[in-house]
């Protein structure tokens, strides 16, 4: 049995949770962690992809704080031994004219020190971005715009978790909706992260009956022209996505892979016939998110900077390698190339991720430490000629 709490303490916990969530949202955090420690709960915020300690909650309030989160998300407060997930709509302060409703997802998990809770934030309208504001180069934006203007084909955005793939897909869908009025657009997502007007959005349950595979087969009878498929996770989903692209639909999706060469080979490894892949796939955009150096403190006095909360970074930008599947590339794919062979051939289409990241350091957008953390390759591995080529590409 949990410890009984007084009405006054419950009121304090309600105010405390409201304050933490409101302040966390104000910082632009994408996740709010309530992590059990020996002294109670440690609240940490994920800002620009990094976790930052935010507040400590004493142990006497820990259980009631997690219970309050469960109540808000319509979870079972008496079950402390199982993981649970729920959601809620956070409306913010009614007295604040700038307050915007925000969708939150709450997930709890039992640990040896008590329950751990994480709030995932799905930011509302002010956070929505267009293709021009993601940090992609002008040539990359033009390539993606041309791709979504096509009546059919497969467009793949790849990268590791947290690299902004879904944000880029949303930006493409909004661009398509605004520039090509009259096309039927349907999304299949797990979960729906942003609500888009004039787009049919479906939240699937990959572990229930409403799976990606089942939805895709049924959706083809709903007269769609454009389908956003949240993620290709297995060979069955990949096969359906390819089939839909080959039968006259425009498919936008994501894959967890490193760069364009790895993405193409990943589809081949999932059993997609090379002749089908080259007929369907049109563009692959592989990206990462890099934190930008804080313009207020420039890293010199980061510990005292209120904008970056002492991290030395504020905001993020995408760095990407976007390639078009042209005839030479199709011919190579038909021969089932290795990743290294395909990667070498794609150099003709411009700088890779490392070279584009090097250009951002030259422009003082970010620094070498951030590139080493995210991209994983030291700038020393990029030759001066490559760096100069990347700089010229970024300037265009």
Give the arrangement of secondary structure elements:
Layout: H1 7-26, E1 31-37, E2 40-47, E3 50-58, H2 59-72, E4 84-90, E5 102-111, E6 114-122, H3 138-148, E7 153-158, H4 165-179, E8 185-189, E9 200-203, H5 212-219, E10 226-229, H6 235-246, E11 250-255, H7 260-269, H8 274-280, E12 281-293, E13 313-324, H9 327-333, H10 339-345, H11 353-362, H12 368-374, H13 384-395
Parallel strand pairs: 7-11, 7-12, 8-9, 8-10, 10-11
Antiparallel strand pairs: 1-2, 1-6, 2-3, 4-5, 5-6, 12-13
Helix pairs in contact: 1-2, 5-6, 6-8, 7-10, 11-13
Q: Report the principal-axis shape.
A: globular
| Beta-strand fraction estimate | 25-35%
Largest sheet: 7 strands, mixed
Q: State the distance separating the first and last CA atoms.
A: 65 Å
Oligomer: single chain
Q: Give the helices and strands as they follow along the chain.
A: HEEEHEEEHEHEEHEHEHHEEHHHHH
The rounded Rg comes to 23 Å
Tell me the CATH superfamily of the largest domain: P-loop containing nucleotide triphosphate hydrolases
Q: What's the CATH architecture name of the largest domain? A: 3-Layer(aba) Sandwich
Number of strands: 13
Instruction: Report the CATH topology name of the largest domain.
Output: Rossmann fold
CATH top level of the largest domain?
A: Alpha Beta
Uncertain spans: 378-391
Instruction: Report the average pLDDT across residues.
Output: 88
Number of helices: 13
Give the tally of structural domains. 3
């Amino acid at each position: 049995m949990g410890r009984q709490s007084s009405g006054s303490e419950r009121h304090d916990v309600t105010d405390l949770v409201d304050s933490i969530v409101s302040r966390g949202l104000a910082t632009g955090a994408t996740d709010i962690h309530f992590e059990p420690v020996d002294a109670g709960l440690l609240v940490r915020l994920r800002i620009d992809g990094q976790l930052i300690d935010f507040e400590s909650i004493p142990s006497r309030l820990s259980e009631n704080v997690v219970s309050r989160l469960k109540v808000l998300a319509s979870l079972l407060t008496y079950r402390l031994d199982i993981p649970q997930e729920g959601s809620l709509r956070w409306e913010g302060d009614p007295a604040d004219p700038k307050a915007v409703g925000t969708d939150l997802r709450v997930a709890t998990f039992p640990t040896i020190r008590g329950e751990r809770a994480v709030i995932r934030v799905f930011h509302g309208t002010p956070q929505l971005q267009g293709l021009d504001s993601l940090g992609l180069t002008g040539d990359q934006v033009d390539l993606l715009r041309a791709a979504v203007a096509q009546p059919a084909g497969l467009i793949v955005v790849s990268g590791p978790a947290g690299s902004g793939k879904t944000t880029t897909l949303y930006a493409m869908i909004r661009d398509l909706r605004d520039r090509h009025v009259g096309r039927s657009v349907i999304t299949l997502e797990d979960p729906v992260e942003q609500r888009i007007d004039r787009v049919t959005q479906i939240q699937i349950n990959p572990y229930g009956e409403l799976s990606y595979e089942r939805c895709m087969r049924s959706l083809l009878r709903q007269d769609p022209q454009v389908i956003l498929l949240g993620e290709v996770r297995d060979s069955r989903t990949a096969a359906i996505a390819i089939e839909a692209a080959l039968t006259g639909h425009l498919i936008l999706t994501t894959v967890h892979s490193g760069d364009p060469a790895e993405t193409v080979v990943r589809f081949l490894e999932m059993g997609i016939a090379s002749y089908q892949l080259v007929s369907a796939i049109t563009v692959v955009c592989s990206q990462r998110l890099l934190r930008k150096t804080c313009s207020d403190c420039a890293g010199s006095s980061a510990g005292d900077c209120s904008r970056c909360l002492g991290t030395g970074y504020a905001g993020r930008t995408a760095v990407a390698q976007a390639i078009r599947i042209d005839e030479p590339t199709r011919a190579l794919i038909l021969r089932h190339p290795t990743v290294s062979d395909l990667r070498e051939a794609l150099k003709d289409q411009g700088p890779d991720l490392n070279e584009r990241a090097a250009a951002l350091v030259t422009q003082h957008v970010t620094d070498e430490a951030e590139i080493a953390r995210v991209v994983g390759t030291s700038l020393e591995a990029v030759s001066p000629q490559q760096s100069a080529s990347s700089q010229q590409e970024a300037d265009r």
